[in-house]
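[STRUCTURE TOKENS]
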Amino acid sequence: MYRRTNRDTIQLRMKKTSLLLLILAVAVLSGCFTKGEDLLIRVEVENAVERLAVCNDGTPAIYFIREGQKTNKDKWIIFFEEGETCSDFETCMERWTNDQDKMTSNNTPNSLKLNGVFSSSAEENPDYYDYNHVFLSYCTSDGWWGDEQIDFIAESTLQLRGVKVVTAIFEDLKEFHNLGNAEEIKIKAGLNNGSTKYLDQIQEWYPDASVEIISQ
């Protein structure tokens, strides 16, 4: 009767490992897995509540980032997400009923995969694929331009803190992601928001960088 030796066992394990590696290699080459570098990763504003960098419901503001690579690691594309606004009890309650995800960060995903100027593919996005990419998640219902608290009934409040959110995110990008070394900062503005008003302010914050709006 044949008895398996230790050598036979080791050889069998090596064959299984080789087969597994081959399967994984084929899966990656065929695109079965999403590459991590394609994703923009969710980041919560540091000490957001203390800095009033919050969404309408008081939850911390969020941004998404994929850091730049190679020779363009000091070049940035920053997108201000678009969205509608509200300014009183009736319009804000309607917005909360119909578009609640734009007023809180509670349901914000852990990552985003975006196309166009946010693609990490050199073929799809030859001009900007290896830039730093930042997506500012809109949750303040003020076109990025409010800085007040609205008091409603039953001691409920609504925060309109777009100015605080933008300021805090740019400060965090400088402190934690080297935005202070930027050579280029390209602002991609969404529809129906006041992000273009920040162009001069951003240039003042980062005087050594070339700051401009892009419409792609």
